[in-house]
Amino acid sequence: LEGFSLAAAAWESDVLPARLEGYSSDMLDTLCATGRFTWMRLAVASGQSEKKNAPIRHTPIALVDRQNIAHWRSLAPIPDADNMSLSGSARRVHDWMRDNGACFFVDLVQGTGMLRTQVETALGELVNWGIVTSDSFAGLRALVTPQSRRPRFAPRRARRPMASQFDAAGRWSLVARPNVSQPDARAVEFLAQVLLRRYGVVFRRLLDRESVLVPWRDLLRVYWRMEARGEIRGGRFVDGVAGEQFALPDAVGTLRTVRRAAPSEELIAVSAVDPVNLAGTLLPGERINATLNNRIVFRDGLPVAVQRGDALELLNELDAELAWQAKMLLTRKRRPASFMPPPSERV
């Protein structure tokens, strides 16, 4: 999933818990706090003039290996802060971090002389511009959490106010801007390898949902060289797709195994923001928008039901039992009925 941009609120509500059994937020916090990974917005079009104080929940955020930041910033450079239409409070916070380096939230409040809520709003705007990140994923989690769900009051016996989620975010810092104007050859080759690890088989149509890309012709040159070195295979691996295709050797064997396997009839529900949402691009049917409130149920790799906001829709004819199971998967998300304790055991 490295470098794939999706709605900030979906990482811990839909994507990671669906892929990792027993996922907890401290897993991602530890990876970020120890310097293994970091989060940021990668794709920000230069010269955009629209307001950037929209809710962070829908902001496309990517997780990247910290040692690969230079490659990602080369592939997706951020605009110069002088050319951004920042609000007054966001400009104030940006200038303070530029002059003083990475700062804790309390330092930003004291240094800028603004209210905590003003600094929160300013950080959200800077995250939307892709120019700010924090040491821990708790910083993004704090921005995503609605104000109504945050603790408002300290315990009556507490001598000091409760620490907010922003205080647990570690330091906030500006994302370094690269000194290159276009991706170099090493960054393009790095991206080509990331795409192979993500999909196993890569071709042009598959990359419609990738937000940080160089032209396909540049990737094509890298894949030709990798094929000539024997690292990957070229050929026709997916029917109904025009153009050249490239695959990892292990992926070819997996495709053959799946083709020979009997249908399992298993239903799997995923968020529409997940990169496995290939409906309308690679899979048949209409495209299902990759928005936070949309979910899809797959059966043997094909979409059979979809939830768009509050509306549920069956895409194929299903018997009554499968239709009921599909609706339960869409409405209950990760907690099926079997996980609910009986009424006598509920507190």
Task: Quickly describe the structure.
By secondary structure, the protein is α+β, with helices and mostly antiparallel strands.
What does this structure look like?
The chain is an alpha+beta fold and 347 residues long. Helices cover 35% and strands 15% of the residues. Residues 153-163 and 334-347 have low confidence and may be disordered. It has helices at residues 10-19, 25-33, 69-75, 88-100, 105-112, 116-128, 138-144, 185-199, 216-228, 249-260, 320-332; strands at 6-7, 37-40, 60-65, 103-104, 132-134, 171-174, 201-202, 233-235, 245-247, 267-271, 294-299, 302-308, 311-314. A four-stranded antiparallel sheet has the order 10-11-12-13. It has a three-stranded antiparallel sheet with strand order 1-3-2. A three-stranded antiparallel sheet has the order 4-6-5. The protein starts with 5 loop residues before the first strand and ends in a 15-residue tail after the last helix.
